Amino acid sequence: MGMISKIDKMTILFVCFFSLVPNAHSQEKKQDNKPPGSPMIQGESVDHWIKLASDKDESARMLGTFTLRKIPANSNGKIVRKVLEALRTSLNDLSHGVRICAVKSLAEISKSNPKYSKQITHSLLLLFKHKDPDLRSCSAKALLKQKSTRQLKKNVIFLLLNALNDKESAVRQSAAKFLGNLDTKLSPSQVNKAVLSLTTLLLDNNEKIRLNAAVALEKFKSLPAPTVKALSKVLNDSDEDVSAAAFTTLYKFAKSVDHASARKIAPIFLELISKNTAEIRSYAATILGSLGQKLNDKQINQTVFSLFDFLVSSNENLQDLGTLILSQLGAKAILPILRGLSHPNESVRYIVATMLGDIASEADKSTPALMGMLKDKDIDVQFASIEALGKLGPEVSTKQAENIAKSLQQKLKEYGQWNVRCHAIRALSVILNKHKLKEESAIEETVRKLLKSDDEEVRSTAANFLGTYRAVSNVSIQSLIKRLHDSQLEVRYSTIEALGKIGRRATSKKALNIRTILLKQLKKSEERFAIVSAFGEMGINATPALPTLTALLEDKNYVVRYHAAEAVGRIIGKSKKEAHNIQILALIERLDDDYWIVGSHAAIALGQIGPRASQAIPELKKLLKSRFVEVRLNAAFALGEMGKMSKIALPELKKNLTDRNQRVRNATRAAINKIEKR
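and the corresponding structure tokens:
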């Protein structure tokens, strides 16, 4: 095939090595013996190497031809022309190795002597038709590196396009590779010729040629249907690199193609998506996903129904890909996706129901179908439908929200699994916080009854619902109070938290009732920290409980202490009164607590109180050196909240601008800005 023989390769390597080492004869020569005006290369005159390039011995000719590439850039024109003539003569040498060395030397001289680029390029152009395929390939590589004129570039492209059809595989491979890297803009006729030739090369027996052809096609923005078809066949290539390159080209083309072209090539991938191996199907599905927004309704339907098959595949990668692409299609494919709710396989119904909850723009279309799925025979599908309705509830009209609420309320009245009921309660909570519905009191009553459910998770979720319900009744408050004696600790925690939230927005009378009950409940050690936290949630409405909370700052349980610090800070922080010296002093004492988390929360509390707690500044300054990240961070926060009162702490604060922790550095910077009022 005309490839470089093993002996030739070894000879060239020998020449490359030998040319770097000056011979002994050159070392003995004196500088005074060189001909006037003749530049030197590795201790010998240029004439010496020109003469060697025509020596009878092949190895000597290779050495001379190879070394001539090193001619100094500042050589005069006469000398350079002599070198070029010698190299052009070597291009026709009987030795394959000499010819290759001559081509490479010409390319190197063109780079170091740009003004001779035109002459050199002309010589290389002539070689592109040489009978030696290695020489043609080597010439193609050299030509594309030349800084030639516009006209010469046109000639290079012309020869390059013709080389795509060369009978030698090495030439076809090089031409395809370099065409893919070519940055010169092709004319429409050149584009057509290149694409047609590259399409043919996709069927070449040589995998490297197929690979280079697939990669080269990536640079063209417009690909005709036959080329797309050919690339789709290469997706199943025996060589993984070739199939991957074909996929990359097709995927990028699919993302940029116009609507008309997208609809024209879609059938190719719709055929692939239902056949072949999992890998080919995934390729086809991904490409269809990128075409999705441009397909017509029929093609979108076909794509969606094919993806439903992915969802029930035993291949997890196909399952994940099917879910991902259906999500990408989203609103564009809402109608066929909705049909998935009637799919015979429960996995498809589950995934579709889950997915619909994330397509908020189509909430009005999805909610009727999802409400119908509340009666699905599969409990997981019911679960997913409820969750989706909770997400879509805030996006629909009030009338539609009322319909959803009625359906969910009915679900609560039915006997069912605890997780279904819990999600129905949570969905109702989200909807009621967005919409003011006519049936709110009926919904509250239904949820309130669930405080007596046999399942502790349902009781806990019902308590949470009533805690967030904006118009909770006295009846519900009393029902919650009874749950303070529930047999399950988790339910009691949820109840305490709910009462705290209700107490924050309650009237004085209701707040007094809640506060009184919670103070009595403080005697139970298991729930003390939760009750303290609830007082913090109540804010100003818990002000009368401050003496008790202040005393708890010295509780033997450190968890109670840091919750007490948090609660005191929240209550006083919301208060406009100046006098809270006892509480402030108690918080300052806790800055030095044995447990760093208590000191950290005390710092936050003092920060919430703000300038009124400026007497804490000296102690807060000390915390800036703490070995605990959270303590340093919260000390900076507190000092910043005290504003200009903390100017005395600026030197210590600025040291923490170089703290090893990014969060501390950010908090320190923010504090300094507040103190200096930037």
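(Above: one complete record from the training split.) The mean pLDDT is 86.
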